[in-house]
Specification:
Structural class: alpha+beta
Distance between the termini: 92 Å
Low-confidence stretches: 1-27, 350-379
Helix content: 25-40%
Largest sheet: 6 strands, mixed
Shape: globular
Number of helices: 23
Mean pLDDT: 86
Strand content: 25-35%
């Protein structure tokens, strides 16, 4: 055997040394090259924090750090972390309620922070009295990053026009001149609202507290979808004041140039914005370095320049005159550090506090005070009547003089494109918005001035709005416990609700352990176990894949028919609306254009918009020449064609002929006959769709419903297309 050349052996040793040194350097690198967050914290904050840390990593270690963030509301973020099961797609969870972090630690989904001792020790264990707010986890699984007060905001120009003095405390929101002018997010959808409700209930006591909140509801003109939307609608002048707003969200609007004021009244809750490193994080060194950086003076400045406050007494908000830090001090009432004075707190932060305190207060009593039976034995069959309903947001009219009636036990759908006003109309019915004009009646009872809890409705939201740390059992029985029903009754309703939505045996799972379809069923069961008079569903299937969507909508229709409950359903999906509904109202620009049964809506649309939005249509513009027997003769670019007459059309009127693809045939000479060539063929499974180019480049879509027995026609082949006059609807060209 021939030996290798001596020079190879000579080179091999230093080469091995170089490779070994490279591997050692990699193993001893101070941090990894990537860092990913999952966070409900605003982009305004997390983008700035990540950029500052990336700059720091380049300076200190010469590491070009790739940073990213997965923005997700607190419940969604928690659910995703649970779904990852210790193999996370992010390294850090930042923001939300500290109780959620403790839940994750119990499930072994967090690792201990284990940052430098001086950084950890710089943060006090808690702040505030008589109830201390924890600023770090005693077991070391999370640490606070910045102090964030939940206060109120107001638009100075708008309250001046209303004759209201500058707001200074919570009670100022009850001024009668602010009726319909207050914005807030529902406490079931916002941790800042939830905490502030708890503060007020603790301050005033159960009965007086709920009376106070009822007065606030009377002044509330909008319940926003997110807490982030509250300062936005106030800054834009759409509403005069906002409730339970985090300081940095308000300051972001100030930096954007809006005239908005922030006040943190006495006993306003202050949250520490917790941060934790996820178990199984791919970049643990970078994660720990990020935590330590945020607790340093340089990291705390990121917060102090954006309306937040230092988590440690070592630092204060300060900067040169005119700096954003000094603007933040002025904006938040001169506060530089929450450690300089006494922090008053009455809220014991455990999620959700309402459930913890349900033994001390009763929604049932609140319901009795509002004038309805606290617990109906079963859902009543209630008619809904809307009369000349109007809702404006600033200069935009979202709902424009809508009048319609939903029959007892009917499934009525609001259908339309994004921005048409359908969700706003649903939220008016629910009580989350107050109308600017018009009436809402449930049966003979006028309800447009009543808060949501006094209307006995069940609501299913687009994003499900499930408590991520509660089991299926906890979510479904949440409202029942608030009503203080007996334990046996709660259990009976739970089991009946599970059976209705086919979730038997899953009551001990958490939302993060369920599929999207199962989560939607939990949300539906939670609404139904309350025995509501009316069920409202806001795009409940939009987050599901196509096959599951069909399955769940069938279950919704079956349940609705079995229960006979009056139901209003919002969707932009035409197929969903047609398959589910007793009747459908099509909306555009805040108005209802047509209300009809699904078959009539599809076959007899009264406008071009409805014909175009519901299903697919071919439109041929023309002018009515004459009435020929039972048909109208219409002059079009393709010649004289006949169609079904529409009311109000006569000779000389401009119009369009609307013909659906399934009503056009290939071949033949009967009816309206045209010639063209195949421009495109698309196989859609149960349908073969041709684009047929007629004279002048006009394209007609033609559907062949039985592609199994149809030979595919090649592109370019000439064909005859025909459609009967009865299938061509003549509509005004508007």
């Amino acid at each position: 055997m021939r030996r290798g050349s001596p020079w190879i052996a000579v080179l091999a040793a230093p080469l091995a040394l170089i490779v070994g040194m490279t591997g050692l350097a990699s193993a001893q690198a101070p941090i990894e090259g990537e860092l990913a967050l999952i966070t409900p914290v605003s982009k305004f904050i997390h983008d700035a924090a990540l950029k500052a840390f990336a700059d720091y990593a380049k300076e200190k270690w010469n590491v070009s750090l790739k940073v990213s963030a997965i923005p997700a509301g607190t419940p969604v973020a928690y659910g995703r972390i649970v779904e990852w099961k210790g193999k996370p797609e992010a390294d850090i969870f930042w923001g939300g309620e500290s109780a959620l972090f403790e839940k994750l630690a119990e499930q072994k989904l967090l690792q201990k922070v284990e940052i430098a001792k001086d950084a950890w020790d710089s943060i006090p264990a808690a702040i505030g009295k008589p109830k201390p707010i924890p600023l770090k986890d005693r077991d070391g699984y999370w640490v606070g990053t910045a102090l964030e007060p939940y206060g109120l905001v107001y638009n100075p120009k708008k309250i001046q026009r209303l004759g209201v003095a500058p707001l200074q405390g919570w009670d100022d929101l009850l001024n009668p001149k602010l009726k319909g002018e207050v914005a807030q997010c529902a406490p079931t959808r916002s941790s800042s609202s939830n905490a502030t409700y708890e503060v007020l209930l603790s301050l005033h006591g159960e009965d007086k507290g709920w009376e106070w909140l009822k007065k606030l509801a009377g002044n509330t003109g909008i319940f926003t979808a997110r807490s982030r939307d509250v300062p936005t609608v106030v800054a834009k002048g759409e509403f005069a004041a906002g409730f339970a707003v985090p300081s940095y969200m308000a300051f972001e609007e100030k930096l954007a140039g809006f005239d908005i004021k922030f006040v943190a009244p006495p006993y306003a809750f202050v949250t520490p914005e917790p941060m934790a490193i996820l178990a199984g994080a791919r970049n643990p060194k970078a994660a720990r370095a990020f935590v330590e950086f945020l607790l340093s003076e340089r990291g705390q400045k990121v917060f102090m320049e954006r309306g937040l406050f230092p988590i440690t007494p070592k630092y204060k908000v300060q900067g040169p005159p005119g700096s954003t830090a000094e603007m933040a001090v002025e904006f938040t009432g001169g506060v530089r550090s929450y450690f300089d004075g006494e922090v008053l707190n009455v809220y014991d932060e455990r999620w959700p506090p309402v459930a913890r305190r349900s033994s001390r207060r009763s929604f049932a009593r609140t319901s009795r005070r509002s004038g309805r039976s606290p617990e109906p034995a079963r859902a009543a069959r209630v008619r809904i009547r809307l009369h000349e309903l109007v809702k404006r947001f600033g200069g935009v009219t979202a709902v424009d003089r809508v009048s319609l009636e939903v029959a007892e036990g009917e499934l009525f759908t609001l259908l339309g494109p994004s921005g048409c006003g359908k969700t706003t109309l649903l939220r008016l019915v629910a009580g989350f918005h107050t109308p600017d004009a018009g009436e809402i009646r449930f049966g003979d009872r006028r309800v447009d001035a009543l808060p949501p809890y006094a209307r006995n409705i069940g609501m299913v939201f687009q994003n499900y709005a499930l408590w991520p740390h509660m089991t299926v059992r906890g979510n479904i029985t949440y409202g029942l416990k608030l009503r203080r029903l007996p334990g046996a009754e709660i259990e009976n309703r739970l089991q009946a609700g599970l059976a209705k939505v086919n979730l038997g045996g899953l009551e001990n799972r958490y939302p993060g352990q369920l599929s999207g379809g199962q989560q939607q069923r939990v949300a539906l069961a939670r609404a139904l176990v309350l025995n509501p008079d009316i069920l409202l569903l806001d795009e409940p299937l939009s987050n599901l894949d196509a096959k599951i969507r069909v399955q769940v909508r069938t279950e919704i229709r079956r349940l609705q028919r079995e229960l006979g409950i009056t139901t209003v359903y919002v969707t932009h999906d035409q197929e969903e609306a047609l398959s589910l509904s007793d009747r459908v109202a099509v909306m555009r620009d805040g108005q209802v254009l047509q209300t009809a049964a699904p078959k009539d809506l599809y076959e007899r649309p009264t406008s071009r918009f409805v014909a175009d939005f519901v299903g697919i249509n071919n439109f041929l513009a023309g002018v009515v020449r004459e009435r020929a027997g039972e048909w109208l003769a219409v002059e079009t670019p393709l010649g004289l064609l006949r169609g079904r007459p529409a009311p109000g059309l006569g000779p000389g009127d401009r119009c369009v002929l609307a013909v659906r693809p399934e009503n056009i045939g290939l071949g033949g000479t009967d009816g309206n006959a045209l010639r063209g060539r195949i421009a495109l063929a698309a196989y859609l499974g149960n349908t073969l769709r041709y684009d047929v180019e007629i004279a002048g480049g006009i394209i007609l879509k033609v559907d062949v419903r039985d592609p199994w027995h149809h030979d595919l026609l090649p592109v370019g082949q000439e064909v005859a297309v025909t459609f009967p006059a009865s299938a061509a609807l003549t509509l005004p060209d508007a």
